Every structure is written in C-alpha cells, then in structure tokens.
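Q: A reviewer asked whether we had any structural model of the full assembly, not just the individual parts. We don't, so I'm hoping you can provide one. Inputs are below.
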Amino acid sequence: MTQPLAKPPRKNPVARTRQPTLPPGARSRRALGLAAAAAAGRFELQVCGDCGAVQYPPREVCHQCLSENLAWKPVDPMGRLLAVTTLHHSNDLYFRERLPWRVGTVRMRAGPSVVAHVHGDCQEGQDVRLALKLDRSGQAVLIALPEKATPHMEDDKTLRETSCDPKFRRALVTDGKTAVGLAVIQALLDAGATAVFAGDPETWKRNAAFDALCQDPRVQPQALNVTDTDSVERVSRSIGGKVDILVNTADYEREGGILHNRDLIKARDALDVNCVGLMRLARHFGPAMAGRAADGVNSAAAWVNTLSVYAHANLPARGIWSASQAAALSMSQCLRSEFRPSGVRVVNVFSGPIDHEWEQLTPPPRVAPAAIANAIVRALKDGTEDVYVGDVAQEVLARLRDNPKALERELGS
Amino acid sequence: MSTTADTRDAKGHAATSSVLGQFMAELLSGRIRIVDLTETLAPEFPTIVLPPEFGQAWPFRIEEISRYDERGPAWYWNNFSCSEHTGTHFDAPAHWISGKDQPDNTVDTIPVEAFIAEACVIDCSAQSRQNPDFLLTIDFVRQWEAEHGRIPPRSWVFMRTDWSRRGKPNDYLNMADDGAHSPGPDAQVVPWLIKERDVHGFGTESVGTDAGQAQHLDPPYPCHYFMHGNNRYGLQCMANLDQLPPKGAVIFSAPLKIRSGSGSPLRVLALVPTTQA
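A: Here is a predicted structure for the entire assembly that you could use as a starting point for your response.
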C-alpha cells in the first residue's frame, strides 16, 4: 500500500536547494513515437501493418516479418509482472538520488516483454497495467501500475517522478479574474494545492466571484498584469521562489480579421497579452522554477499555457487573436525546450470556444471554464503535455491531421 | 522699465531692469517657487477606462533597452509606450468631436502662447471628500469669486479635489457597478466659464476633466464638449493643486509636439509667489 504523501514541512532557509538531475534522455527518432503518445496520454506501440506483430522497443522493421509498415496504434496495456528487482545502487546521478528503485519485466498480453519501472503496489506474478509516462527528461517510460487503483497510488514515487500533481504544491494563476482563471483557482484548491496566488490585472475592477475565492485563506491575490513588466518583476520577487506550478490564464480575445480591420491597437494588445506576456512571465518566474525543480515534495513542476485550438489553424473571424495564439504556441515550444534541462514540464491545454463573455455570439458547443480547469488538473496529475478540451478542439485537431488544407478552407468559410 | 531689452551687466548677469531679469532674480532668491503639478509616469498609474469592447488608451509601459549590460555596456535607456491621454496630460480641442473643426486644434498647431497661462484654483476638496460625485456649479464659482475676485480672462480654472492623494488605481478610479465616481464640473458651469469668464481651459486632479458619472449629464461629458467645442484646453491627472494659491500662479504646460496629436502627457509646472516675499 502506498504511504500517503505528507504535507512537506517548511523549508529550511539555510539548507542548499537540491539541483535537478535528469534520467537518461537519449532516444532514437523512432523511439520518440512513445513520447508522442505519452505526451497526449495515449498508450501506443508500433503495430506491423503486414503481420500484426506488436513491437517493443520501437524499431525500423518488424521483428517478425521485417516489414517496414509499422504504425503507432493503441494496444492492450495489460500484462503480467514476471520479475521485479529493487536497485540499491546506480551510477546514474538521477537514480542515485532516488534509490531504492524498482524495475521489473512485464509480459504484455499484446506480445512483447518489456522492462518497466514498477509501482510500489505491484507484486511479482500479478497482472499489471502498463502506462506510458513522460519522465523528467521529457522522454517516455513504461511504468507497471496495479491492475486496479489502490489507495493513494498517485503518491508512489515512481508516479510522482512523472506527474506534476498539484497536491501540496503552490500555484500561480496569472489572471484569476477570467472565467477560466476563476475555475482554475477552484480546481487547484480542490486538488490539494496548499496556496494559490491569484493574479489580478485590474485591481480597480470589482469581481464578486474573485473576491469570494479570495476569502479562502489559501488564495492570495496578487496585483499582476502580464503587460506590465514592472508588476511581473515585483510579483516574481515576492513569490517567485514559491511558485511550483504556473498556469497562464491571461488572454485577450477579440473578434476581427486583418483585411477589413483598422484596429492595429487590438492586434498589438492581443500580441502583448497572449505572446509577449508569456515571455515576461517566463523571464521572471522561469529561472526560479528551473532552479527549484528538485526541491522536495513541493518542487517546481509545471508551467501550463491555456491556448486556443486556433493556435494550430487560423479562424479568420478571429484572425488576429488566432495569430496571437499561434505565436504563443510557438513561444511555448521554445519554453518547453528551454525548461527541458530542469525537468519543469510545459503543458499546453488547447480548447475550442470557451463559454465566456468574449464568445457570446459563438453557437454551442462551447467549453465550460470548469472543464478546462479540470483538464489542467488532470494533465498535471497524469503528467501529459498536450491536452485538447472539448468537441471543437478534438475535431479541429482531427481535421488538421487529416487534411490541413481542407481545414484552412473550412475555417474561412 | 523696459519689457523687451535684454540688458546685461559687465559680468553677463541679466540686469534687473528687464522683466525677465527680475523674474530670474525672484526665482533664484526663492521668492518665486516652482510647484510640480505632475504625477510620475508609472505602469500602475490608472488610465481612463472604457467598456472593454472599445479600443483602450494604453497605460504607461516601459521596457529597458539596456542598462550597462550586454545590450548596451555603457548606457541605460528605456522604450516606453502610452496613449496621448496617459498620466498627467493635456487635452487639445481635436480630442472631442465638438472641437474637430476648430483652427489650430492639435498639440502641434496650438499657438505656443497657450502653454503659459495663469490659474484660478477653486478648492472643492472638502466637498469631494464628502461626495465623490461632487459637481462644480455656477453658484460655487460665484461664491469663490466673492472671496477671491472675478476670474480673469484667459485663465485656467483648476478644480482642486485632493483626488490625487487617493490610493491608485482603486480609490482613484473609484469604480462601482455603475461606473466611476469622481468629481467634476456640471453641465451649466462649463459654458458659463467660457461665455462669461472667457477661461483658457479646465484642469482637474482626477483621470479626466469630466466627472466620473459625466456620461449621464446633458450633454454627456460637458467639459470635453464645451471646452474643446470652443477651442479651449484641458489638463487632468494633476497633483499638488493644494500648494497653489487661489489666484496668481502661472502655469507652464507645453504638450509634446505630436503631429495631429489630440493631447499628450506633459510636465506641468506652476510658478507661485512665496508668502514671505
């Protein structure tokens, strides 16, 4: 049975902060198919299109028939734990700091036998469920989990190393007054966050829901406007060392395209909030988070961007906003790469139209802010990197993969 | 005494016989004091708030170009951005639709003589403390004149409310569900000041020359409407009006020379005779 996580004591202010180390991160290009599946929370292996054999580890040709026709497909994640070993020694810096460490061999029902990290609640000879997770290197690893959920199983150290669970962590929600921001604050509290710093870009603007949330002693309002470098710097100097999870909910959404639009100001404002604002936050909060990525139970763990699915394909009716979202997506990829050496995960949560005031005239389905908030918490717990919330986002993604040119035409019609 | 000759003595000092020489002597001796009526430009200083679907005036924003670092090793400088109506600022007649056809109605064409004028300061601080929606009326101005004398032509009228001392941005903007609540002139006193007193313009400490609820007056925003419709000027977001005498201060208020500009942030200075002189 997993020992439930205890609330970490206050940090000893004169103790050295442990620097992050990473598990081995080298993978072949072919093997990154595992990372693609793990980033989206899918369990996929290569399956031979000719003979049907399931492959592991990833390879160029089928181990059975030498066919090159290997496609990544969902496969049965169940198997039997044949043997378990507990490591008490490792020459790898990352594992040395985490010993003892369980590894084992699992014979999958789908065919292959795999070496996997083993959850503490799995015993030799039992049926287990394999999960593909991203480790602190951002690479996919296999973890053998109990067939059925066990109490506090998420607190097991193998899973903690691949998740960014808000439990006992402190989070900054950069704009706590948006519909999504309000929902994210609540969802993080419900997920066990010990403190939520709630950014308030417009302190003069009354918001009863925000004020109500701030009644909770765990919620600390912060005058923070992502367009104001001074305010970002001020808040980062005050709380930057305590932000374990940053959720950027700041968004400037307006209608309008380019050809018949004189409103350059709104374009600049959209880019300033959605894109440059991300950079201001990264510059002032990012380095401290990277430095605290191995700081115990409440280490810095994740950076979450709330983006629109139209970051992938421009919706001309909101063309400027879509462009700013695309720019933000591009920046998030840069940030993800820059955070990689620390192990801080960058999570992008894409949604379709949100059920808030700036989408008043958009016909349903619109995504409830609470659904986005729950998806964020789910992504943090599961350790995924890319999440698509709601039917519209899923459909746009599917159509994009099927035929990007067709999607371009469809969004413009 | 000559008002034009720039006579200087053997050492090159301005002779006290010229008016400007006398002025400098008074200034250097401290008998004329300079009062800064300007708020510091900073990102947190509030700008006027419109409904969010409209274009918004940019607040003051500033980014370092370099600060003796890899971006410029020996020099420090910034880029800043803001609207023409951010911080302590000047309103040109072209700012309002009523002033759009006035001659010389933008900051680059306004005659420079307009940037130096005396000011009458009407103290409404007690009333504004009692009532954030306080409106300046003709009767209130007449009472002021009974004490301090008639407002001379081409004089600024400054409405002192001590609003600049309020906490910024929350208490300063003073937003409620029905909008901002801050003092200003009523719809009758503005045309009266123009027609009966020929004032130069109107100045306030709050975020605009009009009251926070001025959209409900008739016409809406009467100070903007009438002042600019009569080619007069506005100053707002001023500070330190409590340091000015009711009469006799001289105001230097030259906006930036922006082509076709509707206004501009500026440094507003008041020359004030000291009492011990």
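A: Points you may want to mention in the reply: The first strand of chain B starts at residue 32 and ends at 36. The two ends of chain B are 21 Å apart (CA to CA).
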